């Protein structure tokens, strides 16, 4: 006998209102946009990062539902404070958006081992350890982790191999952790953005803010849809993965067709 669908009476979709969300790298660009989006949906959001001034500026715009924890994701003690702060602020933890990241642009002949270790530690190891530290809380809430991948895993851009390698690691990690942690009743997914105006290259000393903006605007025609991403569009992808209770192990591409390799002149 066929089993009747329970979708109409028990939709496996979460409400954002009342959830507790931790967003690393929450002081600018994608992280700040996600914080704004989730707060406006009624979530209790905790943002973390190294730059207190940027974090407090975001929190002051968003009000009491946005809490700040200043810290470095590469520090075990700071990661613990981030998770504890989110649990205290939201009385639980429903979602971890592991957004913090760093970049080095180098030719192969200019590689320095410590730089490579630093970018892997920030972009990959820190997210893995946050997963460990958030594990018990996410088991209780049947929550989720969302990593942030990159179009750099789909298209080869010269001089960013360290960054691309870390994002490839996160995308692979998404599937493995989803398979491992399904038994613990929480989900693991990843969003793969296209070009977004962020400060990562400016912080890395690669470009000035004006140069970065000009470069990003010039990339619009590389997207099938003719423009770069907005942080709001990335936040909407985060929301979908946080809400979708039957979705795990996914890498959700939100790149306007940048990864397709076509042009829109």
What's this entry about, in short?
The protein is an alpha/beta fold and about 260 residues long. The chain contains eight helices and seven strands, in the order E-H-E-H-E-H-E-H-E-H-E-H-H-H-E. It has one domain (about 20-195, about 230-250): 3-Layer(aba) Sandwich (Rossmann fold), CATH 3.40.50.
Structure description:
By secondary structure, this protein is of the alpha/beta class. It has a single domain (20-194, 231-250), classed as NAD(P)-binding Rossmann-like Domain (Rossmann fold, 3-Layer(aba) Sandwich), CATH 3.40.50.720. 43% of the residues lie in helices and 14% in strands. The chain is built from eight helices and seven strands; from the N terminus they run E-H-E-H-E-H-E-H-E-H-E-H-H-H-E. It has a seven-stranded parallel β-sheet with strand order 3-2-1-4-5-6-7, sandwiched between helices. It is globular and about 45 Å long.
